[in-house]
Write a structure and sequence with these properties.
By secondary structure, this protein is of the alpha+beta class. It is built from 8 helices and 5 strands. A 5-stranded mixed sheet has the order 1-4-3-5-2.
Amino acid sequence: MEPSFKLQKHKSLNFGIKKSRGEILVFLDADTLVPKHFDRLIFSVMKKKHSVGGAFEMNFIEPDFKLSLLSRLNALRYRIWKTFYGDQAIFCKREVAISVGGFSDTLMEAAYFCRSMKKRGNLYLINQPVETSPRRFNEEGFWRVVWFDVKIWIRFIFRQSLKNKAKGYWKIHLENG
């Protein structure tokens, strides 16, 4: 049986935005651990003038040379473009999440969300890392995942549509859990 594509991540995130009541929202992957006092760190960023949100540095839970190198390369990416991924515990003002229309129905929904938020104000990077699982790299193969992600990132940078890539991605990831 083919999995239902109605279970896509963006729909769950947007449902959370709609049902939330707090002023500040945090979008946290289930396999990501936040640092101690993460809430205080977020509040300190949100007090800054023109702040609309941000994210944390990111490391992988498992010590591995390739994963460590990837974390460092990703750090360059998100420092340059201020475009964060979902496993970085993205946070923002609820009003901003609503005003940008939430998360889009394509791959890299978090990156598109950040791109939209930057039009409303400043995004900040908290210099303490969240730790996330390398499950996808372990299950699908490190180089295969990196190659796929690089191709998607290049399309994102050049503002090419990712919708035609989403169905295949979600089919694989819904089947694999």
